[in-house]
Every structure is written in structure tokens, then in C-alpha cells.
Amino acid sequence: MKELIEKISTSFEALKADAELQAEKGNKAAGTRARKSSLELEKLLKEFRKASLEASKA
């Protein structure tokens, strides 16, 4: 579970950095990277939900 939380944190930081670059400087490549990071983050958050439910049942 800790490893999953680390992955979520890393992915969120990447998303945040790229989204800020796109918003502040109009960097289109950063926008593309941010969208890709958001998809990865979505998958990780779904994994977290599953792991959290399993942990609460145990």
C-alpha cells in the first residue's frame, strides 16, 4: 500500500508541474504530458480504492 501511495504522489507531482507549465507559459507539450499523467493517476487511484477496500475488510 505504501508503494502505491508513493506512485500516486509522484504521478500527481508530475501532473501538477506540467499543468502549471501549460497554464502559465502556454507550453503545449507540457499539456500533453499532463493529460498523460492524469490517465496514469486515474489508474493508480482505482488501484488504491481496491486496495483500501481489501484492507478495510481484513
TrEMBL record:
**Pfam families found in the cross-reference section:** Hc1
Q: Per its database record, what is this protein's job?
A: Might have a role analogous to that of eukaryotic histone proteins.
Source organism per entry reads: Paenimyroides tangerinum
Molecular function in Gene Ontology: DNA binding; structural constituent of chromatin
Report what the protein is called: Histone H1
Family, similarity comment: Belongs to the histone H1/H5 family. HCT subfamily.
Superkingdom, according to UniProt? Answer: Bacteria
